[in-house]
Amino acid sequence: MYQVSRSTHSNTLTGWREWVSLPDLEVDWIKAKIDTGARTSSLHAFDIREFDREGEAWVRFRVKPWQDSQEDAVVVECPVHDRRAVRSSSGHAQERLVVQLRIRLVDREVLAEITLSNRDEMGFRMLIGREALRRGYIVDPARSFLGGRAPREARRRNRGRD
Fold it and tell me: What DSSP letter does each residue of 89-107 carry, written as one string?
């Protein structure tokens, strides 16, 4: 017989892909893949530049929320939380900067550690990893967009990829 573990968090159901928002960046819509195989979440970022602000490590980067579009691109500055060696699905290790950002996923907000990487060749601008999901999410791999979809006009900017 096995024992069922009870979580202290409420269990929120999420699909394998979701439209999420990043309130700290004022990004209302970005399509994310829910990836239980990844420990840390990852965000498509480019023009990544580290700098010093009052003795602390900071990073400036740009985010394009829409695939194949410059529309609504934002410039972000935030403290560097950490640096980590991350192994890609192809087995290649790379050191990435880690920042902390709030993610709004299926009507709940969680603070997550997010690595910055160039995801231009990937199908999703963002991955949501296990560290963020363990705060009370259950993933249904047969479902999508349980938190709703971006408005139609916003999805058009994403060239209908929803």
Answer: TTS-EEEEEEEEEEEEETT
DSSP string, 13-65: EEESEEEEEEGGGTEEEEEEEE-TT-SSEEEE-EEEEEEEETTEEEEEEEE--
pLDDT tier for residue 144 given thresholds of 50, 70 and 90 = very high
Q: Which amino acid is at 46?
A: F
pLDDT tens per residue across span 100-124: 999 999 989 999 999 998 876 677 8
86: buried, middle or exposed (CB in 10 Å: 19+, 13-18, 0-12)?
Answer: middle
The pTM of the whole model exceeds 0.70: yes
For residue 121, the SS3 value is coil
Q: Which residue has the tokens 């609504």?
A: 72
Residue length, the chain?
A: 162
Residue range 82-93: mean pLDDT, rounded:
81
C-alpha–C-alpha distance, residues 74 and 61, integer Å? 8
CA torsion 35→36→37→38, rounded to 10°?
A: 70
